[in-house]
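Escalation from tier 1.

The customer reports that the assembly of two entities below gives different structure tokens on two consecutive runs. Tier 1 could not reproduce it. I'm attaching the input and our single run for tier 2 to review.
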Amino acid sequence: MSKRVAIIGIGTTGFRATTPDVSYRELTYEAAMKAYLDAGVQPKDIDSFVATSEDFFEGYSIADEYSPDQLGAVLRPIYTVSGDFIHSLASAYMMILSGIGPISVAQGLSKASNMLTLSEMVTFAMDPIYNRPLKESPHAVAGLEMARFLYETGTTREQCAKVVVKNKRNALNNPYAGHSVLIDTDHVLNSEVISYPLTQMDISPHSDGAVVVVLAEEETAKTLCDKPIWIRGIGWCSDTPGLETRNWGQAIYAQMAAEMAYKMAGIRYPRKEINFAEINDEFSYKELQHLEAMRICRKGEAGPLTEIGGTEITGEFPVNPSGGCLGVGNLYELNGGHKVFEVVRQLRGEAGKNQLKNVTTGLAQSWRGIPTTTGTVVILSN
Amino acid sequence: MEITEKMVEGTATKLSAEEILEGKVLSARWEPKLKYAWDNGPAIGRYLAELKNGKIIAKKCDKCHRILIPPRMFCELCWVPTGEWVYVQDTGIVNTWIIGHVDWKAARLDIKGGARPITLSIIEIDGASKGMGILHHLGEVDPWKIHRGMKVKAVWKPPEERTGSITDIKYFKPIK
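Tier 1 run:
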């Protein structure tokens, strides 16, 4: 049995569509200051740092070289993961288990508003020989997947629209959310068509922000922290990248990542043993597809469960009480960071008006977005 | 061991640029469209605005007392917010430099034909802490006469041509 590791500090700037007043340096600095204060540590107490960045998104080659200053990690052990924030969290977790030292930090950042050619950048992630010559929009990939998912599961566009309505409404009570609004399903269904069945309102708009998380091994965590949130299981997985050969209906990557985390956590019946989840909902249907992939719902059940309010804050299994990507914003490589931040807030009882009652175990899940088939999952308990 | 052409023979197909350009071999060509508008934040923003005014501004760390240039909102070593803004001189000394015979695209300059070598230098700015400075070109100087510790001064573009950029300084030239 490995030693236990807990999250002992969290910090964020909050998430807004634009952040013209600060550079990426000050964004991370603010999140790091808050996380270190929350954990009661100074940079010198931290044994290793893991940052998250994607060069094309930052606009720098070797963007990771620009990570140390704002984390207090100059001339300290630090490296960067080019993936989702939860990949970095897994690395920071492993740093502790490897004996590098009892305290580690994971960081993530989004300056999505600074990317002027976002659509072209995502298109550039597609295969240059087989796919790019067809000049598809990135959202074509989401449309293709949504169509297949609806067909295979009998899920309806109305049920997907309900996800948008729920998440954007949850975001109204989340002071960190950047895209909260009160709308009805007709508003979603009648919004501009992007790649049918996908409409404009099915797509989460982007946000800027930063998240920093401090981790510690059991003894240190109990000394420093009144409410340590334990990492019980963590998993990650990537499917084949080919658009032609992937499974378009089911998110197998999420299933495998979740099973890896469940096994580590000793969870057999996720719906019963987990109280709530923050799930990747970059597109409305993704929330439903991910719920089914992770065995929280049976195939075809996530849509109807959403329809009857089962995933509301007051429902049987609350999903994205924070507002998710649809209400908070798409944060790209930071998406997992926001999910972890929110699960920790809920488990500590610090989620304000969106606080769930009697929650002891939560799940945070992320996906690296179009056109990837990479997913990450972490299970946390108080 | 040196890899000779003979050893490579048979292991690879030789291609010329012409063969690709003329479509004699299958190829794919993509140019990424990557455009960014980085938010400066208060430190970089004021630094650039002051350059437009023909001034160089730094920020002071109240803990280690270093005068930091370029200015930043927090000291990366003490990890505390920085304090007051401090104007520094537009003079300094050469820390290290090159006599460059290739440009930034790795193209060779025609030095024998009279092209001036690129004389890029790290300049420690007077008034900033030791080791703090600006990366810039040296001008009005024989490249072979540049020396460590050489005193230099900024040559500014005329005010109407300045845009709020590090290139508002044309180069640094030697002074007595």
